[in-house]
Amino acid sequence: MESLKIGQVTLPHRAVFGPMAGFTDAPCRRLMAQHGAGYTVSEMVSSRALTYRDHKTVSLLKADPNGAPYGVQIFGEVPEIMGEAAARIEEYPFDFLDINMGCPAPKIVSGGAGSKLMLDPDLCGRIVEQVKKNTSRPVTVKIRKGWDAEHVTAVECARACEEAGAAAIAVHARTREQMYTPGIDLEIIARVKEAVRVPVFGNGDVRSAEDAVEMVRQTGCDGVMIARAALGDPWLFERVNAALEGRPAPAGPNLQARMNALRRQVEEMVELKGEYVAMPQARAQAIHYMKGLRGAANLRRVCCELQYLTDIDRLIEAVFEEQRRAGEAGDAGEVPFP
To answer: Taking the model in full, what pTM does it have?
Structure first.
């Protein structure tokens, strides 16, 4: 399969890791890259905060080389401020600059940013134009199907962004009104793919290798963007890449490997941010590692009690104890990570 490029950036794989506020920090991105994410993207950062050089916002951009191209995602609704923000971060090490036009969060759309931009394709184009003018890196955008059923504007927004210089477009195949349910509309991804010449990534409901293959088959998209489904399961990228590249499915991780990954991720979070900041965030990350395990409901409660790094060892002990007890009770069935 021919390599996929975003501008001058060559991707190692076609399954990429989408940004999620509160989750896709540097340790999380590194973990996904190690398991085959074609690229990773920072948590979204405010263009206004960047122009003010807000220390907390700038800290979200920190990245060490992790084996995959790395993009910084910014959001805002004023083209000139977005351009200024791009200029301010030009000194930082990253490979491409991504513009958020898809976030459905009320606090983002109430200011006119995120998916609110889907109501104004012309504004989308002007934002890309200003960002492109102020960065030496490729510029990408993440859009939605549209704002609501009456404003399905993905094709118009994608065309405006491409004409303004966007090098790739990711399409979350739901409107803002739909948020994250119901199922995605594969047809809108196909329509965007037909409308532009730059690479298009389909996004939404890719939870398995089969989902990824089917999305590519039905839409013709160049790659798939995976986000929440990879939390706690970075091996999903290995499975998806193998399926997309025509290779045999890789062996899955055993339970010890899964717990090792959890512990390493939380250790890196604490090292990066300190225990006080990292551990509340680690609770949400840890919950995703409980997917499919026996006694998951009880284990999620233990996750919610994490306060110190040493508590991770207590959680891991509880995980193994729950699986052992389920086995003794004859209720183990298929332990998902044997």
So the answer is: 0.93
